[in-house]
Amino acid sequence: MLGKFFQKPTQQEGDRVPPGQYLTKGFPVLTYGATPKINIEEWEFKVWGLAKPKSFKWSDFMELPHHEFTADFHCVTRWSKLDVKWTGIKVTDFMKSIEVDSKAAHVMEHCYGGYTTNISMEDFVREENFFAFQVFGEPLSAEHGGPLRLVVPHLYAWKSAKWINGLEFLEKEDLGFWERNGYHRRGEPWAEERYSNF
């Protein structure tokens, strides 16, 4: 498998690839369960919990400022892809469009298909995080999480939820799907936080 689909990082790439990771030659698709079929006309994104409830249609979301991003992408299954080029909306810009209670310390990401994953506010509200709707200049395919996914480059990719359609703001941490099934509650690649330590 190594050589055909994956390769060891070169010396120059070594400082960008976390321990135990290999570079992929493609862009693997790993998904638990079926890929949801989402109609843009019916797409809706909701905010609730410790936040003023609000919903966005696709056109509302697309009115937020767009930016180009280049970010490395690290999957817990030990592959990394460097310099992925995305188009999306900064989390920090999105946060300006909603009202969140100061008690909110955690976020549950909700997705079409029922997937959830948790993230702390500290990890979520960072300038380099974004909601992506294009990759390499093309609309994000359903297999890669389209029409919209969150991208959190500093954590393993299961935190970059595909098909995201809602954020629930919480005072206390609650665990999402993979976190309840043995994955680490945070998932920091450089610390190899792959699996649960409790």
**Percent range for β-strand residues:** 25-35%
| Total E-strand runs | 12
Task: Give the overall shape, derived from the CA principal axes.
Answer: globular
Q: SSE order in H/E notation?
A: EEEEHEEHEEHEEEEH
- What would the average pLDDT be, to the nearest integer? 92
Model regions low in confidence, pLDDT < 50 over at least 5 residues: none
Task: Estimate percent helicity.
Answer: under 10%
Main beta sheet strand tally, sense and closure: 7 strands, mixed
Helix-strand category = mainly beta
What is the CA–CA distance across the termini?
32 Å
List the total number of helices.
Answer: 4
Rg: 16 Å
Name its key features.
seven-stranded mixed β-sheet, mainly beta, 198 residues, 4 helices, five-stranded mixed β-sheet
Describe the structure.
The protein has 198 residues and is mainly beta. It contains 4 helices and 12 strands. The chain has helices at residues 58-62, 91-95, 121-124, 177-180; strands at 6-7, 22-24, 44-49, 54-57, 67-74, 79-90, 106-111, 116-120, 130-135, 138-139, 149-151, 164-170. The strands form 2 sheets. Strands 1, 2, 5, 6, 9, 10 and 11 form a 7-stranded mixed sheet that branches. Strands 4-3-12-7-8 form a 5-stranded mixed sheet. The longest helix is centred in the N-terminal third of the chain and has 5 residues, at 58-62.
